[in-house]
Design a protein that fits this description.
2 copies of one chain form a homodimer. Chain A has helices at 16-25, 29-42, 45-56, 61-68, 72-84, 105-118; strands at 2-3, 6-7, 59-60, 88-93, 96-101. Chain A has one domain: Winged helix-like DNA-binding domain superfamily/Winged helix DNA-binding domain (Arc Repressor Mutant, subunit A, Orthogonal Bundle). In chain A, strands 3-5-4 form a 3-stranded antiparallel sheet. Chain A has a two-stranded antiparallel ribbon with strand order 1-2. In chain A, helix 4 packs across helix 5. With 120 residues, chain A is an alpha+beta fold. At the A-B interface, strand 2, helix 1, helix 2, helix 3 and strand 3 of A face strand 2, helix 1, helix 2, helix 3 and strand 3 of B. Chain A binds a DNA duplex (30 and 30 nucleotides) through residues 9-11, 40, 44, 46, 60-62, 70-80, 92, 94-97.
Chain lengths: 120, 120
DNA sequence: ACAATATATGAACAATTATTCATATATTCA
DNA sequence: TGAATATATGAATAATTGTTCATATATTGT
């Protein structure tokens, strides 16, 4: 059975209208890829911890490392990822680099995430 | 330099008050792990697409596979992941299994995520 | 009971990724 | 200029993970 260019299984009760809706409402492939990339960034404990710390205050690399009890290198690598995704920004003061959050949505996303895992 | 059990670097200007705040506000290790696990689930294009499809309508496995142009096996594997994270639920009707979304927060999380990648 | 069909699942493989280690770069201060 | 320090980064390694393939399970109709 084939409708609307979609090969359907025998029992399928999916309507043409539904297929149309899916194709209309589904964000573009590239957008979905970017969205996945964003969530991938949140999908790591170290990066989540860094963000949690930055919720409290701007902070330099070595203090983040100290607070999270991890090596400076590991933190630096992850900060690069956060920088590339435009989730953190930084300012340099001499040899010290201070990082802070660069996105208003992060808190909302985290809160909703926490809601999900907290319930039940 | 050591304050509050945190080994700080020489230039650190981090205050005891900040350290206290971080330790107070930071969710428990286990909670952060679960949060990362949740975002990891969102961090895959296939799973994101499945969720997008289910935003429109409940759907059986083979129709999801057809719509996304992927094998039934691949979809089934990913649905298991979504099931385990309690993001989708299912009902069985004969040999057909219908999946649907099982979380009110997903839409919010996605919308915030899309906001982030859309801006700038 | 048998054939057909929908879904689930285990094993294998390829690809991705987080951390570590070594080292490079940049800045300050003596 | 040289030593000390903060940060960044490349390479290597170990661990995780998504898809495929083969196959198992469950259900329906004949």
């Amino acid at each position: 059975m084939k409708e609307n260019g979609v090969e359907k299984c025998d029992v399928s009760v999916i309507h043409n209208e539904t297929i149309r809706q899916v194709k209309n409402k589904m964000p573009k492939e590239e957008k979905l890829y970017d969205l996945a990339e964003l969530f991938k960034v949140f999908g790591d404990t170290t990066r989540i911890k860094i963000i949690q710390v930055l919720f409290v205050s701007e902070m330099c690399v070595c203090d983040i490392a100290a607070l999270l009890n991890m090596t400076q290198s590991a933190i630096s690598h992850q900060l690069r990822v956060l920088k590339q995704t435009r989730l953190v920004k930084y300012r340099k003061e001499g040899k010290v680099v201070y990082y802070s959050l660069d996105d208003d949505h992060i808190k909302n996303i985290f809160d909703q995430g926490l809601l999900h895992i907290t319930e039940r």
